[in-house]
Amino acid sequence: MWPHCRTWGRLVIVRRGRESRVGVVTEKSDTPLAAEPASLPSAPKLSGKAWRDIALYGLLRLLLFIALTVVIHSIVILAGMANYFPLLISAMLALILALPLSMLLFRKLRLRVTEQMAQWDANRRAHKETIRQQLQERLDA
After folding, report:
1. DSSP letter string over 39-55?
2. Which of 27, 59, 107, 129 stands the most exposed, by the fewest C-beta atoms within 10 Å?
3. Rounded to an integer, what distance in angstroms lies between the CA atom of residue 97 and that of residue 85?
4. Do both 34 and 96 map to the same domain?
5. Same domain, 5 and 34
6. Which controlled-vocabulary keywords does the entry list (predicted)?
7. 80: left (phi over 0), alpha (psi -120 to 50) or beta
8. What is the per-residue pLDDT for 139?
9. Would 133 be classed as within a structural domain?
10. What are phi and psi of 46, to 5 degrees?
11. Could you tell me if 35 and 63 lie in one domain?
């Protein structure tokens, strides 16, 4: 019933939600705890392509926001309203416009990033369930 377990030397910390239990590893249970982590599958990681796509999408959205801010404030300056329409208001308007525009302009990249994140999340959940089952087996033994 205690799904999270960590060992530090001969000390075991088992956690469930906000509760924790601390105990000392006995000689009998020390061997399985030391031997089993080597057989655990590695934690799922995002590929280099996924990280590149995430960074590119974030950078493109930031550049779109900056470009919209510059365009909006340039229009304000050309209209002679710079004293009444500060840069912060131009930035807020650009922020509001940048969200739907980025969803339209960068649709393919957004969908690709979402798909990669969904795949990583599914792998992470499967890995987490495997770890949970192995810990449950250890605690039941």
Report:
1. GSPPPP---HHHHHHHH
2. 27
3. 17
4. no
5. yes
6. Membrane, Transmembrane, Transmembrane helix
7. left
8. 87
9. no
10. -75, 145
11. no
pLDDT at 43: 74
* pLDDT for 2: 45
Q: Could you tell me if 36 and 92 lie in one domain?
A: no
Instruction: Write down the pTM of the prediction.
Output: 0.62
Apex 60 CA angle, 116 and 79, nearest 5 = 150
* Phi, psi (rounded to 5 degrees) for 10: -105, 10
Residues 105, 109: Cα–Cα separation, whole Å: 9
**Model confidence over 4-21: pLDDT tens digits?**
555 444 545 556 655 555
Please check whether residues 23 and 55 belong to one and the same domain: no
Q: Is 140 part of any domain?
A: no
Its sign, for the CA torsion 84, 86, 90, 93, is negative
Phi, psi of 5 (to 5 degrees): -135, 135
Of 24, 69, 65, 47, residue with least CA distance to 120: 47
Q: Which domain holds residue 62?
A: 48-122
